[in-house]
């Protein structure tokens, strides 16, 4: 404990004499050869009365050792000079206590510890307790891939890829395999450094599990003449309920009663399936018959089975599989043919019934037609008998009303033609008959039969 206190006291003593100036800047910064480094910097003095912003103020950067009296070559930059050793440019407004500096055309030899100094005569001060460690590398740093949100199916998450941007004037170009031509943003961090970033929101599914995200950062160097690239990958680990659950039977096809069969249930899930359950379909619904992905039993009769795979996120049911006994299979194979034959018989019976019904109906209609025609001829005769008038004769050929005779009948009718006379009494007022005789009263009917 005493040793620790002594060490701390020694560290404080090393910078106590120069506590009149303090800077706010990152303690460590990394840069890329051939590129630049923007150093965000602000300063404050111990006593405000000592610093006068109206006076000419110069900024100085010292490397390695704050005591530059004996090592003037450690003063690598002074804003009062034009022939500085290192390619630096003080871009901040010193009157506003802004000491931001742009360090250009970097090489690995520029890696060192740097101290900032203010010359506002008569005030002179070096920030001895706030050194800045700068490291210049040949290879760019890898981008960072970050995912915000819970990696579960159906959850929406934000995925971003970011790269440090030590030189905001030449930011890196980011690309990744999540989207083409992403929108690139350059953001300022709380310490006033910069970060280049791309971002995408996605809704996760089981297909994203195991997906490898690759993000590349391309840094322009040597005033854009060359490019240095870095890359980062990460693999998504998405949790999801069981998928592609299936059941299989071995041996396949029909089996003999008394033989052994094996039922196997398979599924994919993350986390893995914690429980497999086998069900047999009964008249009362599914009945649990076994636990585990493998179910082996001695066959006594056929049946329908399915399995259910379960993990902490849910479950999924497989399609049904049918276990058939060999004797039962023959009956089942005949069932479709029995149904087809039965259907044909039903159609034939229906067709015969329809034909019989139509035939009966047609015969009935013909009988009714003949019955209706006979009174049509006889009724006028009865009606005329009640009328008063003279007797007329008419010739009527009934052969046109009879069914079409055979050829023998035609010959007989040609040879035998008798004339029948009918007595018709017509009233004087009846005008519906056409008078063909010399006198209306001299009509007669000749009947050919």
TrEMBL record:
<dbReference type="InterPro" id="IPR007110">
    <property type="entry name" value="Ig-like_dom"/>
</dbReference>
<feature type="domain" description="Ig-like">
    <location>
        <begin position="143"/>
        <end position="235"/>
    </location>
</feature>
<keyword id="KW-0812">Transmembrane</keyword>
<feature type="transmembrane region" description="Helical">
    <location>
        <begin position="334"/>
        <end position="357"/>
    </location>
</feature>
<feature type="domain" description="Ig-like">
    <location>
        <begin position="242"/>
        <end position="324"/>
    </location>
</feature>
<dbReference type="Pfam" id="PF13895">
    <property type="entry name" value="Ig_2"/>
</dbReference>
<protein>
    <recommendedName>
        <fullName>Ig-like domain-containing protein</fullName>
    </recommendedName>
</protein>
<dbReference type="InterPro" id="IPR013783">
    <property type="entry name" value="Ig-like_fold"/>
</dbReference>
<dbReference type="InterPro" id="IPR003599">
    <property type="entry name" value="Ig_sub"/>
</dbReference>
<keyword id="KW-1133">Transmembrane helix</keyword>
<feature type="region of interest" description="Disordered">
    <location>
        <begin position="367"/>
        <end position="416"/>
    </location>
</feature>
<feature type="compositionally biased region" description="Polar residues">
    <location>
        <begin position="406"/>
        <end position="416"/>
    </location>
</feature>
<keyword id="KW-0472">Membrane</keyword>
<dbReference type="InterPro" id="IPR036179">
    <property type="entry name" value="Ig-like_dom_sf"/>
</dbReference>
């Amino acid at each position: 404990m005493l040793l620790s206190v002594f060490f701390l006291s020694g560290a404080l003593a090393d910078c106590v004499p120069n506590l009149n100036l303090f800077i706010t800047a990152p303690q460590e910064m990394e840069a890329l050869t051939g590129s630049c480094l923007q150093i965000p910097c602000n300063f404050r003095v111990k006593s405000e009365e000592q610093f006068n912003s109206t006076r000419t103020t110069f900024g100085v950067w010292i490397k390695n050792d704050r005591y530059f009296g004996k090592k003037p070559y450690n003063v690598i930059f002074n804003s009062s000079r034009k022939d500085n050793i290192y390619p630096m440019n003080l871009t901040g407004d010193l009157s506003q206590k802004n000491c931001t500096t742009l360090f250009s055309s970097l090489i690995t030899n520029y890696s060192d510890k740097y101290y900032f100094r203010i010359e506002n005569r008569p005030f002179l001060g070096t920030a001895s307790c706030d050194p800045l460690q700068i490291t210049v590398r040949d290879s760019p740093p890898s981008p960072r891939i970050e995912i915000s949100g819970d990696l579960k199916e159906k959850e929406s998450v934000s995925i971003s890829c970011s790269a440090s941007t030590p030189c905001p004037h030449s930011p890196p170009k980011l690309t990744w395999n999540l989207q083409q031509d992403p929108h690139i943003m350059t953001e300022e961090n709380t310490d006033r450094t910069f970060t280049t970033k791309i971002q995408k929101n996605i809704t996760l599914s089981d297909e994203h599990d195991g997906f490898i995200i690759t993000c590349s950062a391309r840094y322009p160097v040597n005033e854009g003449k060359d490019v240095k690239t870095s890359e980062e990958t990460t693999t998504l680990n998405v949790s999801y309920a069981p998928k592609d659950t299936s059941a299989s039977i071995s041996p396949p096809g029909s089996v003999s009663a008394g033989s052994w069969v094996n039922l196997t249930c398979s599924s994919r899930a993350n986390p893995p399936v914690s429980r497999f359950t086998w069900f047999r379909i009964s008249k009362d619904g599914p009945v649990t018959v076994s636990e585990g992905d493998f179910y082996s039993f001695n066959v006594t009769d056929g049946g329908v089975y399915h399995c259910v795979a379960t993990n902490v996120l849910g479950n999924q049911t497989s399609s049904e599989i049918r276990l058939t006994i060999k004797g039962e299979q023959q009956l089942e194979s005949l069932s479709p043919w029995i149904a087809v034959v039965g259907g044909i018989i039903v159609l034939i019976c229906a067709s015969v019934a329809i034909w019989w019904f139509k035939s009966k109906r047609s015969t009935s209609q013909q009988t009714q037609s003949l019955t209706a025609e006979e009174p049509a001829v006889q009724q006028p005769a009865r009606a005329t008998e009640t009328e008063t008038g003279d007797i007329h004769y008419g010739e009527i050929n009934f052969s046109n009303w009879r069914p079409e005779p055979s050829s023998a009948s035609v010959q007989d009718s040609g040879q035998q033609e008798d004339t029948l006379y009918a007595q018709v009494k017509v009233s004087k007022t009846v005008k519906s008959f056409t008078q063909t005789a010399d006198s209306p009263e001299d009509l007669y009917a000749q009947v050919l039969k």
